[in-house]
Design a protein that fits this description.
Elements (H helix, E strand, L loop, with lengths): L8 H9 L7 E2 L6 E2 L8 H6 L4 E5 L11 E6 L2 E7 L19 H4 L15 E3 H13 L3 H9 L2 H9 L6 E3 L2 H18 L5 E4 L7 H14 L2 E3 L11 H5 L17 E5 L3 H4 L4 H7 L5 E5 L12 E3 L6 H18 L4 H10 L5 E7 L2 E7 L18 E2 L6 E2 L37 E9 L11 E14 L2 E7 H9 L22 H8 L3 H18 L3 E5 L1 H4 L4 H14 L9 E4 L9 H8 L9 E3 L1 H8 L27 H10 L13 H11 L3 H11 L18 E5 L3 H5 L3 H9 L32 E6 L4 H5 L2 E4 L8 E3 L6 E5 L12 H15 L6 E8 L34 E8 L3 H5 L5 H4 L2 E3 L2 E3 L2 H11 L16 H11 L5 H15 L5 H4 L8 H6 L2 E2 L20 H6 L17 H5 L13 H5 L9 E7 L15 H4 L7 E4 L1 H6 L7 E6 L2 E9 L7 E3 L60 E6 L7
Helix pairs in contact: 4-5, 4-6, 5-7, 7-27, 8-19, 8-27, 8-31, 12-15, 12-16, 12-18, 15-16, 19-31, 30-31
């Protein structure tokens, strides 16, 4: 249809007719009503602001604010909301947390009654007709569903209808029956690991997340991770800290005296907290912003550094060069030296090996190298005692963490030993030349870069394998950063003005930041840290984290923090904010969410790898793993694709992979039992013989497809679906705009089968649960109407403040909407009702990876990779392969288990980050509070049938909200560390935060071993204060913050030490994307956080639309716009191999030439025209992106480089992308 339309005559008539029904004088333009006489004149205003009740609630959106709001209700209708003003004071020397809120939160109540509200259950009409027809022949719902999906023509008919309308209303009973039948059939025929759930950010509404996750987990399905998928997970955090992600609350910004905002736009994305940053300037804090554009936060800054997009790591390396030279070599700052000796891996010894006439770094020296054969010796790292010059094995490394002999020794107490930071000028040492990788050179030819020569002092030690040459991590750091010392061989910069790696002059050629400015900011940051005792802080976020090589970028930042002794100090350290990640009562949430009170463990899948595989983006990936390898590598990735590395990671047990095996796990368990063989042994032999394979080795085989996906609290297909068009084509089987060619034969995987019959439409069923119509709902098969945040009970927390907030229903869910919690409770009961005759008590076998914070971390000594598939090592479950764990499930009892706490909390208790707590007392408290189930499979167990009951259980089981749990956890940790810890929580041992407490007021949490910082005594929370002040180790190999990583794959990519890697050269990897039609410009394409929304939320209401252009828009510079003849607000078309987008151009001087922004995430429901290039509606921001896998994010089984959900895994990065833009016809059609 055309964009122009006739005036709405009927609407105009209604407005004019209103004057006959409204008392008062109507103005000629119909815009005002004037009333006369005393108080009757202001009756409108008194009526407008009167209300019947005020309810405390909050917003469950990933905005990180977690603000407490007053929700006003009149005549059963929500009328408006205002901010709560009863936050506890945080002291006389700091600004307060209130009032908290922003225009987005103040506009939320619009959604309750908005035209986008989903009011009733919907189902795709074609599917409903097919199901009803099948049920006429097959009265059993499970058999009816089987008939639908086993008929290829019927299946394809409703898949092709996805995204094209045709949703019809149905009853709750019918859609619940269909959903339950689909789950039962899928598990019966294909296996429970073909069932998936996706719901992100539990902190934003814990009970709602836990409800669905509990259902999926009790069924044996797999929950998909989100933090890595969103690319909000900073992989550098597990690499450096062994933790993910722990950061300061926003009030601690006030304590910083030097603040760098690096890739984090605080006023835009942390609106309720931005005042702490703005007000701290009046306390003397210096504020520096680093961003390629003139961002909103720049106007608050004292200085602005504007590096080219994706080059921040070069700036970080140059600042590190200045810090090392001026504060460690030219002079040594005592506090910095003491800090890195105690809290970092800088004094630890690393072996070198010969290469091309020089030496290259190899592995950490361990006690095993020195002849120790005791338990954990391979994971006890070594330093040099400066007093004796002899190797010393200090406390605190991984080798002390999980064994009896390490009790009381897992701590950072050096026991009087002064470690030698360097071997420079030490006796019996020699200076040698080392080869180190660099990636700023040869970029026009490959991604692997080249190398250069530097020098380090070395010593020799006698090991079990002979004499080895060793140096310290600190000496390698100086070599890496180009900080020379007299007498060392190699190539060194002559000064800051020498454009050799990694000087200020060198970075200027890459980033565009003036060398003098980079030098000065680096010096100021360190000088302030020296003067203030560590109160230099870096706030960092998506601007630097959403790149392919974001881990290398972040490691340059974290090096600055560690070298200057800022981590674990109030007012200092890293402050990474990209999502509402901190679920403070994490233990209670996790146990409910993954059904760990009934079964352990649960299936949890790395989201990015799942989507990469199941949307078949791997089939279009021309970037082989060997392209990334450093020339100093050993050829481990030669000829191997990224998909090969995913497969190796899965079969090695490093990362999870679901679906796991190419047969139904229920059938495999049954076969093993019939053969009279233990299940793990049976699977091992089957894999070795080739009779059983990992599903990842043939992902396009129908038996290895995911079949059922449920999405709630998320808009996957409108917000986070990197490679959106591949989702539409391969996962959903509907219309798409993929323009890419598949990978040439010579670049295809070696270990993964390539099928010529490419699957279009793997999913049998897509269920979306939401309170508003989104792109995901438009493409779903079943759309269920959810309650909003003002219509249910729940809990919210954030990393920005220390309070737990409650959701309280202001009204009952209107129309036929239901809370997420009630929806999944009903679904569980329906499964139990339909399961008999199909599923009963079944033995399931789960393929589980090697886990972080468990002894699994010691499966790969030295990070030396050996693959059982190539015969380098035997297949040993839990060591060289995943663990194969049998679990018995009773599908007739799913409903009962959904609504009751299971017995494992009585007998086993909880385990969070390696800290165990017996929770029998808490189970008794929950039973008294919630009551118990009277009969059935869960008779006598505490009830969690309602969301209120679930909230009580979450709070009771978590140390942050239950002082007894916190104290017991600390006491158990005291036994392992030998350090005093329990006093941090003992003053709150009798305190238990209940759900009514959170409904009454904002309640501050309790210091707990679940997190690394302390609120004890009313201090502001910041990460790792317990590590620094109480000598508790970090959860890493050395027990310290790591600057050196020695896993084989880290070495292969040349990333053992902090380094700079530029953005991927997409033009070289994937070719020219221009069409030759008209004037085109090729630009860097970035998708930052939206200005006027949180992800795709809030965009479609009048308040927010009036602040933006309404529909999709792309920001571009005047130079780029002029090059293609585009004026502001004109329609443009952006396209590359991944898809097409139609948007309006916003031509702005704040954008740098060569870069465009498309703020995410404008949904398909607002003003999306057809594209000229594809003939389809113009896509979303992710239509131009795709997934790229980095092999080093797949490693596991080695110290901090081990899997835990949302802790480590490949990221859904998207900022290396480029796109082509041209002006299109201005006569758009929809």
């Amino acid at each position: 249809m055309s964009t122009t339309a006739d005036p709405d005559v009927a609407g105009d008539f209604l407005v004019r007719a209103g004057r006959f029904f409204t008392p008062g004088d109507i103005s000629p333009d119909l815009r005002t009503v004037t009333r006369h006489g005393g108080r009757e004149g202001d009756v409108f205003y008194r009526d407008r602001w009167s209300h019947d009740k005020v309810v405390r609630s909050t917003h469950g959106v990933n905005c990180t604010g977690s603000c407490s709001w007053k929700v006003y209700v009149k005549d059963g209708i929500i009328t408006w909301e205002t901010q709560q003003t009863d936050y506890p004071s945080i002291g006389p020397d700091s600004p307060e947390y209130e009032p908290r809120g922003c225009p987005r939160g103040a506009a939320f109540s619009w959604y309750t009654y908005s035209p986008t509200r989903v009011r009733y259950p919907y189902i795709r009409g074609v599917l409903l007709e097919a199901y009803r027809a099948a049920k006429a022949d097959h009265p059993d719902p499970v058999d009816a569903w089987a008939a639908v999906v086993n008929d290829p023509e019927t299946r394809r008919s409703y898949q092709r209808a996805r995204g094209k309308g045709g949703l019809v209303r149905a009853s709750w009973d019918e859609v619940t029956e269909i959903a339950a039948a689909a789950h039962i059939h899928t598990i019966k025929k294909h296996g429970p690991d073909r069932v998936f759930g996706f719901s992100p950010i539990p902190a934003m509404s814990m009970a709602s997340h836990a409800a669905g996750s509990r259902f999926i987990s009790l069924m044996g399905g797999s929950m998909l991770s989100f933090y890595d998928w969103y690319c909000d997970l900073p992989v550098a955090s597990p690499q450096v800290f062994g933790d993910q992600t722990d950061v300061p609350e926003s009030a601690d910004w006030w304590n910083a005296s030097y603040l760098i905002m690096w890739g984090a736009n605080v006023p835009q994305t942390r609106t309720p907290d931005a005042h702490f940053m703005a007000e701290a300037r009046y306390r003397g804090q210096k504020v520096v912003t680093v961003s390629p554009d003139y961002a909103d936060n720049t106007k608050f800054a004292d200085e602005w550094l504007s590096p080219h997009p994706g080059t921040d790591g070069a700036l970080g390396m140059a600042m590190g060069h200045v810090v090392l030279k001026e504060f460690f070599v030219n002079r040594q700052v005592p506090r910095f030296v003491d800090y890195v000796k105690k809290y970092s891996d800088l004094p630890f010894l690393v072996t070198l090996k010969e290469r091309d006439g020089a030496w290259v770094p190899d592995k950490f020296v361990t006690a095993a190298d020195l002849g120790d054969t005791g338990e954990g010796a391979q994971f006890k790292t070594v330093m040099v005692d400066s007093a004796t010059g002899r190797p010393h094995v200090p406390n605190g490394s991984l080798g002390f963490r999980f064994n009896e002999s390490g009790m009381g020794k897992w701590n950072l107490d050096l026991e009087g030993v002064d470690p030698a930071l360097s071997l420079y000028d030490a006796a019996n040492t020699e200076n040698v030349e080392v080869l180190l990788p660099r990636f700023d050179a040869d970029q026009e030819h490959n991604e692997g870069g080249s190398s250069h020569r530097r020098g380090v002092p070395t010593g020799r030690i006698t090991t079990a394998d002979g004499e080895r040459v060793v140096t310290t991590v600190f000496d390698l750091m100086l070599a890496q950063y180009g900080v020379g010392r007299d007498g060392l061989p190699g190539e060194w910069p002559t000064g800051y003005d020498d454009p050799a790696p990694y000087t200020p002059a060198w970075q200027e050629e890459i980033t565009g930041v003036p060398a003098a400015q980079a030098e000065r900011i680096g010096r100021e940051f360190a000088q302030n840290a020296e003067d203030s005792g560590g109160r230099s802080m870096i706030i960092l976020g998506a601007g630097t984290n959403h790149w392919f090589h974001s881990d290398t970028i972040y490691r340059t930042f974290l090096a600055l923090i560690t070298l200057t002794g800022c981590q674990g100090v109030n007012g200092g350290g890293w402050a990474h904010y990209v999502g509402q990640e901190k679920c403070r009562p994490v233990t209670g949430w996790a146990n409910l969410a993954f059904g760990m009170d009934w079964h352990r463990p649960a299936r949890q899948m790395i989201g990015t790898a799942f989507w990469y595989v199941q949307t078949d983006q791997w089939r279009y990936d021309a970037m082989g793993a060997d392209m990334l390898a450093s020339p100093l590598g050993e050829g481990r990735f030669q000829g191997r694709s990224m998909m090969d590395t995913v497969a190796q990671s899965a079969r090695s047990g490093w990362m999870p992979s679901f679906p796991s095996l190419n047969r139904n796990p229920l059938d495999i368990a049954r076969e093993a039992q019939e053969a009279g063989v233990e299940i793990p042994a049976y699977i091992t032999e089957q894999l070795k013989s080739g009779d059983l394979r990992f599903a990842i080795e043939d992902p396009d085989a129908p038996e290895n497809w995911p079949r059922v996906l449920t999405i709630w609290r998320a808009n996957l297909l409108g917000s986070s679906s990197k490679g959106n068009e591949y989702f539409l084509k391969h996962l959903l089987g509907t219309d798409h705009a993929v323009r890419a060619e598949q990978t040439p034969e010579d670049l295809r995987p070696q270990d993964v089968e390539w099928r010529e019959d490419v699957p279009d439409g793997k999913l049998d069923l897509l269920i979306s649960i939401d309170f508003r119509m989104t792109s995901t709902g438009l493409f779903g098969d079943i759309l269920l109407p959810a309650a909003t945040w003002y219509e249910k009970h729940d809990l919210s927390s954030t990393d920005m403040h220390p309070y737990v907030h409650a959701f309280t229903p202001a009204i009952d869910p209107p129309w036929e909407t239901r809370s997420d919690y009630d929806i999944f409770q009903a679904l569980g009961r329906k499964v139990s009702a339909l399961a008999p005759g199909h599923l009963g008590a079944e033995m399931d076998v789960m393929t589980i990876p090697l886990m972080h914070d468990t002894p699994d971390e010691m499966a790969v000594p030295g990070g030396i990779v050996k693959d059982w598939k190539t015969g380098e090592v035997d297949l040993i479950p839990g060591v060289t392969a995943p663990k194969f764990i049998p679990v018995e499930r009773d599908y007739t009892a799913i409903g009962a288990k959904m609504g009751a706490l299971g017995p494992l909390l009585d007998t086993v208790g909880t385990m969070t980050k390696g800290v165990a707590v017996k929770t029998g007392p808490e189970v008794e408290v929950i039973a008294r509070t919630n009551g118990v189930i009277p009969d059935g499979p869960a008779a006598g167990r505490p009830a969690i049938i309602t969301a209120e009951q679930a909230c009580e259980a979450i709070l009771a089981l978590s140390g942050t909200t239950n002082g007894r749990v916190a104290v017991e956890g600390f006491r158990n940790l005291e036994a392992r560390t030998g350090q005093r810890l329990a006093d941090l929580a003992e003053d709150n041992e009798g305190k238990r935060i209940t759900f009514p407490d959170t409904q009454a007021r904002p309640v501050p949490v309790i210091t707990s071993p679940e997190w690394s910082g302390s609120e004890h005594g009313g201090r502001r929370y910041t990460a790792f204060t317990i590590n620094v002040e109480r000598l508790k180790p970090w959860h890493t190999l050395t027990g310290r913050q790591h600057l050196f990583l020695d896993h084989d794959w880290m070495t292969e990519l040349g990333e053992q030490l902090p380094t700079f890697r530029p953005p991927l050269n997409m033009h070289r990897i994937f070719g020219d994307q221009t069409t030759g039609q008209g004037r085109e410009v090729t630009v860097r394409y970035l998708t930052p956080h939206s200005k006027w929304s949180i992800h795709s939320e809030y965009q479609d209401n009048l308040f927010m639309l009036s602040l933006s252009r309404g529909g999709p828009e792309i920001w571009m510079s005047p130079e780029d716009a002029d090059s293609i003849g585009v004026k502001d607000n004109e329609w443009i078309e952006a396209y590359n191999r991944n898809g097409v987008v139609v948007a309006r151009a916003i031509v702005s001087h704040r954008m740098p030439a060569g870069t465009v922004y498309m703020y995410h995430a404008k949904d398909r429901v607002v003003d999306v025209p057809k594209a000229e290039l594809s003939g389809l509606r113009g896509g979303i921001h992710n239509s131009l992106t795709r997934l790229m896998i980095k092999p080093t994010h797949l490693v596991g089984g080695y110290a901090q480089l081990s899997f835990f959900m949302n802790y480590l895994g490949p990221t859904g990065n998207q900022r290396d992308e480029v796109t082509v833009i041209r002006r299109r016809s201005q006569d758009v059609e929809y």
